[in-house]
Amino acid sequence: MEKDKKIYQKAKKEAPEVVYDYGQAVLIHNLSESLRTPKEVFTEAEAAEYLRVKLQTLKNYAKKKKITWSLVGKEKVYTKKELDSFLDRKSRLYRHFN
Q: pTM for the complete prediction?
């Protein structure tokens, strides 16, 4: 519920003359999010969410060198290409045919 309130407030700031009620605000926000350019570089937290694993699991994969990352400043980042490649390698279909 708190997340929806933040979405409502953000959407109201983005288009104050268009938003009349809560439902419209959420709809506008979700629509604008779906139209964004796909993300290519992820932080650790975003990468874990993308892979649908816990942050510690992602860190374990990185430590075991099952997934590669790069440093940008002091922050680890993961590319979408590497995350997708990792998902392909983890799939049963890949293991079955390779």
A: 0.57
List the one residue out of 52, 37, 33, 36 whose CA is nearest residue 83. 52
Domain spans in the chain, listed from the N-terminal domain onward: 2-34, 41-97
Of all residues in the chain, the percent with pLDDT exceeding 90 is 41
Identify the CATH number of the domain defined by range 41-97.
1.10.1660.10
Query: Closest Cα to residue 79, out of 69, 87, 71?
Result: 69
Read off the pLDDT of residues 17-26 as tens digits, 9 standing for 90 and up: 555 677 777 7
Contact (CB, 8 A) for 59 and 44:
yes
